[in-house]
């Protein structure tokens, strides 16, 4: 009987396959493909995905590429990190400026250095108040003037909050007694598996070759130039190309990281310090794009099937919208904040909600803060919520009512 016994052993390729339940990101490209296959949703999906690629992803990729090249240039001198340790007031100022840098890097530097005793609690409040995380990339790329204004308000409010906190608390307020090694908690904190690294490399190659042409097409589109007749292409050609490219980019993105918990879902992908700037830009671009797609598709499909004007619906919420933006901003991670910014860009959320969210959101920096100094993280988050409430409702009553 032993010779008839059947033993099932997973083949090696399946044991290391990206197509496991842990890779839940695959649901996004699967849903996108399904919506395009369906006759009912094909038109609205193609137009939505095309807009997401040409009008958002292309600009975000260009902005991120410039940002990472500049970061590479200035990282050799790291003078800001040294200067903000000079005095309590300088700490707050430079912490707010570091928080204003798009992405998680500046905020995580200050947060982890608070834990190690290099900066005070006021600096931590300042950086969590001023940071927008990856949502800043999206806002700056889509609406540069508004993005600069929102970031500027964040820096101003972050400085005022930090200086006020310095008057109330000493530098070691709620700092844990046991100092952990926090160097591994930054953006560049872990390596990838072999298969994941191949997908990461393909993401870089994808944007390396598409960055220039995509940026040109996006720029022409911003000037209301119809690309199809300009290039003598059949109707809807550029829309289909954009849809196919964004699906390819999401397939590559979905195979680069396992999703095990909330943090792994809403935080940006880890990047190696030695990675090429284009590679880093590609990883950030695809993360931002994924959340933009979720917001755009949700907006368009609800409008399409429910015949609901979300912009008008949210306008009925009126006075509650800044509070909604603030509440979502208190969630850790960049993903929920990108959703709010996407809704603002699409016209569904007012600027008051965007301001409240930008000031209250702490991005990925809240995760190391929670891990290393949970009490300080909670109090700092509450402190950043107070100015968010004031600024959001001040703008609402002054400019939107």
UniProtKB/TrEMBL annotation:
Query: Could you list the residue ranges that cross the membrane?
Result: 26-46, 52-72, 92-115, 121-140, 147-165, 206-225, 237-255, 287-305, 317-345, 376-399
Annotated InterPro entries: ArsP_2
Looking at the keywords, is Transmembrane helix present? yes
Q: What Pfam families does its record include?
A: ArsP_2
**What keywords tag this UniProt record?**
Membrane, Transmembrane, Transmembrane helix
KW Transmembrane (keyword) present:
yes
Task: Determine the domain of life of the protein's source.
Answer: Bacteria
* Name listed for the protein in its UniProt record: Manganese transporter
Q: Which organism is it from?
A: Vibrio galatheae
């Amino acid at each position: 009987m032993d010779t008839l016994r059947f033993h099932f052993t997973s083949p090696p390729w399946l044991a290391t396959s990206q197509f496991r339940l842990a890779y839940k990101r695959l649901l996004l490209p699967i849903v996108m493909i399904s919506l395009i296959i369906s006759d009912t949703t094909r038109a609205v999906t193609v137009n939505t995905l095309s807009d997401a690629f040409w009008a958002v992803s292309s600009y975000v990729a260009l902005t991120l590429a410039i940002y990472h090249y500049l970061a590479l240039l200035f990282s050799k001198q790291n003078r800001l990190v040294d200067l903000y340790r000079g005095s309590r007031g300088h700490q707050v100022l430079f912490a707010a400026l570091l928080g204003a840098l798009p992405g998680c890097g500046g905020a995580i530097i200050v947060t982890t250095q608070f834990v190690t005793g290099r900066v005070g609690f006021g600096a931590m409040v300042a950086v969590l108040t001023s940071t927008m995380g990856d949502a800043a990339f999206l806002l700056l790329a889509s609406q540069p003037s508004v993005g600069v204004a929102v970031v500027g308000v964040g820096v101003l409010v972050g400085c005022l909050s930090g200086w006020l906190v310095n008057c109330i608390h000493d530098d070691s307020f709620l700092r844990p007694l046991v100092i952990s090694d926090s160097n591994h908690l930054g953006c560049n904190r872990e390596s990838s598996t072999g298969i994941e690294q191949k997908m990461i490399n393909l993401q870089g190659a994808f944007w390396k070759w598409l960055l220039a042409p995509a940026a040109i097409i996006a720029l022409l589109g911003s000037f209301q130039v119809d690309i199809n007749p300009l290039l003598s292409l059949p109707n809807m050609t550029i829309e289909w190309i954009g849809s196919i490219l964004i699906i390819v980019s999401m397939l590559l993105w979905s195979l680069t990281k396992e999703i095990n918990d909330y943090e792994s879902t809403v935080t940006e992908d880890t990047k190696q310090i030695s990675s090429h700037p284009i590679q880093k830009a590609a990883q950030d671009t695809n993360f931002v794009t994924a959340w933009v797609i979720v917001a755009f598709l949700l907006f368009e499909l609800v409008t399409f099937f429910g015949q609901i004007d979300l912009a008008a619906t949210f306008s009925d919420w009126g006075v509650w919208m800044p509070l909604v933006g603030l509440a979502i901003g208190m969630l850790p991670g960049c993903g929920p904040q990108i959703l709010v910014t996407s809704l603002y860009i699409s016209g569904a959320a007012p600027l008051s909600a965007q301001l409240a969210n930008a000031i209250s959101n702490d991005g990925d920096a809240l995760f190391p803060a929670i891990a290393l100094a949970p009490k300080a993280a909670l109090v700092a988050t509450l402190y950043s919520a107070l100015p968010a409430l004031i600024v959001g409702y001040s703008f609402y009553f002054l400019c939107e009512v």
